[in-house]
Amino acid sequence: MSRAPRTLCAQAAQSTKFPAAKTAAKNQLSMPARRAALQVLIKMAQVVITFKILPESTEVNLKYLAEKATELISEFGGKVGKTEEEPIAFGIKALKLYFVMDESKGATEAVEEKISALAGVNSIEVVDVRRTIG
Hints:
Blueprint lengths: L2 H12 L4 H9 L3 H8 L7 E10 L6 H15 L2 E11 L2 E11 L6 H8 L4 E11 L3
Antiparallel strand pairs: 1-3, 1-4, 2-3
């Protein structure tokens, strides 16, 4: 067995607070056991998601809707970074919410259902999902 994997494992163990990685490096475990221990060091990525919310009519207060949707997204574990209004037609404007969340949360269907249940919401759709780098 080469020294490179052991050295890598030892370096990772020194820079982490995870006992499993430290134990793997200390005990010189087999390669599969080391890989399993190092999996705790691998972070899921952050994703940037864009929701497009269409109101029921032109009378719907989009600022109020944005506040309520932001609260629901925050409860879900996301952080809204930007909101904007997009003209659709005949005076109707869509509300676009850009937010960041951890990829490990999975699908956004639960928060979409809660937002669609808000008064004044006609529909909601995910228009963009991107993984962040770094």
